């Protein structure tokens, strides 16, 4: 099996949702975005795998970043046995195949991946260190701290995608400045949406991404966020982050519109998760499920299918796109 075939086979194992979108992209984006996504997933596995002491985790971050630069994965793979025996572990133990494929890409594509995914790794390491040495649950302190975290894990992806779009689709060059100016907000919207819906998933891992200052302002603390006795205050706290996330929606719309109509596949790739994020934020607002460990904030398959149809209706309609807000996104 070639490295490309292996990477394409691993993609749906580690993300069904993104795999569908990536597999629909035309060449060369299918290969570029597949490799970029898998590299991000590996560094995410370094951050998330439990029961790894900080010195070893720090070493894995460093060796990952070095592998991006020089293509030598030996040091990283020496510690890869520490990952779990699951799909993410299998992916991480195959880092050499991903990096080897990356190094067949044009130099500007490689350099963009090194820059943005390297920055992601360095930022994740900062928060992983806080998690390793902080007492009790790790909680972001305030909204700027939350935005900083979201920048490292998703804003960088917005910049990476923009670089790849500009490199692989000449029609985007005329809109380069607009795309770059909105790329970060596009990523922040998607990441904050995940944070809003995944509060109770992050909790068992010892993380709370609802800022401490937000919790206190709404009558609770991060330690009591999902305590049933504090449910009303917990919902208000999550709602505050929900409302903060919405400020990035307009910029995400602007990002999609900055992609030329001729680049229909790129528009579709970005518009679909944006609409799903908006629908998820709508569903989560005031929803007790955000702090209930026994339920989930999850849009239905029927709604996903409906959003896919909306994407096709909106692709070439800049007038309707430019008027989108979180309410009209679900009804346009």
Short structural description:
This protein is mainly α. The protein has helices at residues 3-14, 16-23, 29-48, 54-70, 74-78, 87-93, 95-102, 107-133, 143-168, 176-197, 199-202, 212-217, 231-246, 249-258, 264-284, 301-314, 318-322, and strands at 138-139, 207-208. It has a two-stranded parallel sheet with strand order 1-2.
Set out the fold topology.
Elements: H1 3-14, H2 16-23, H3 29-48, H4 54-70, H5 74-78, H6 87-93, H7 95-102, H8 107-133, E1 138-139, H9 143-168, H10 176-197, H11 199-202, E2 207-208, H12 212-217, H13 231-246, H14 249-258, H15 264-284, H16 301-314, H17 318-322
Parallel strand pairs: 1-2
Helix pairs in contact: 1-2, 1-3, 1-7, 3-6, 3-7, 3-8, 3-9, 4-8, 8-9, 9-10, 10-13, 10-14, 10-15, 14-15, 15-16
Largest sheet: 2 strands, parallel
Helix-residue proportion: 55-70%
Would you count the extended β strands for me? 2
Q: Kindly provide the name of the CATH class of the largest domain.
A: Mainly Alpha
Element-by-element helix/strand order:
HHHHHHHHEHHHEHHHHHH
The geometry reads as globular
Tell me the count of domains.
2
CATH topology of the largest domain, anyone?
Answer: Farnesyl Diphosphate Synthase
CATH architecture of the largest domain: Orthogonal Bundle
Number of helices: 17
Query: Biggest sheet, strands in spatial order?
Result: 1-2
Radius of gyration, in Å, reads 20 Å
Q: Which structural class should the secondary elements be placed in?
A: mainly alpha
Q: Terminal Cα separation, in Å?
A: 44 Å
Determine the mean pLDDT: 93
CATH homology superfamily of the largest domain = Farnesyl Diphosphate Synthase
What fraction of the residues are assigned to beta strands by DSSP?
under 5%
Task: List segments where confidence is low: pLDDT < 50 over at least 5 consecutive residues.
Answer: 328-332
């Amino acid at each position: 099996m070639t490295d490309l075939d292996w990477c394409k086979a691993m993609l749906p194992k580690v993300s069904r949702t993104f795999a569908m979108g990536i597999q629909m992209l035309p060449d060369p984006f299918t290969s570029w975005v597949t490799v970029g996504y898998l590299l991000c997933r590996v560094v995410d596995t370094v951050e998330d795998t439990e029961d790894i002491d900080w010195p070893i985790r720090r070493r894995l971050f460093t060796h990952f970043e070095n592998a991006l630069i020089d293509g030598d994965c030996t040091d990283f793979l020496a510690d890869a046995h520490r990952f779990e025996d699951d799909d993410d572990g299998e992916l991480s133990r195959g880092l050499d195949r991903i990096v080897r494929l990356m190094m067949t890409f044009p130099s500007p594509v490689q350099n963009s991946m090194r820059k943005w995914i390297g920055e992601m790794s360095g930022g994740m390491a900062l928060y992983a260190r806080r998690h390793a040495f902080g007492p009790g649950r790790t909680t972001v302190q305030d909204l700027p701290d939350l935005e900083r975290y979201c920048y490292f894990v998703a804003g960088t992806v917005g910049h990476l995608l923009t670089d790849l779009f500009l490199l692989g689709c000449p029609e985007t060059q005329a809109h380069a400045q607009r795309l770059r100016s909105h790329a970060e907000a596009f990523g922040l919207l998607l990441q904050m949406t995940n944070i809003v819906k995944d509060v109770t998933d992050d909790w068992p891992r010892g993380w709370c991404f609802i800022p401490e200052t937000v919790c206190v302002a709404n009558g609770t603390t991060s330690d009591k966020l999902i305590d049933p006795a504090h449910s009303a205050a917990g919902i208000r706290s999550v709602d505050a982050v929900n409302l903060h996330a919405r400020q990035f929606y307009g910029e995400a719309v602007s990002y999609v519109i900055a992609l030329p109509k001729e680049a229909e596949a790129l528009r579709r790739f970005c518009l679909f998760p944006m609409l799903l994020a908006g629908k998820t934020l709508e569903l989560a607002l005031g929803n007790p499920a955000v702090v209930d460990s026994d339920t989930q904030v999850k849009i239905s398959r029927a709604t996903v299918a409906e959003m896919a149809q909306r994407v096709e209706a909106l692709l070439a309609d800049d007038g309707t796109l430019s008027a989108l807000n979180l309410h009209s996104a679900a009804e346009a």
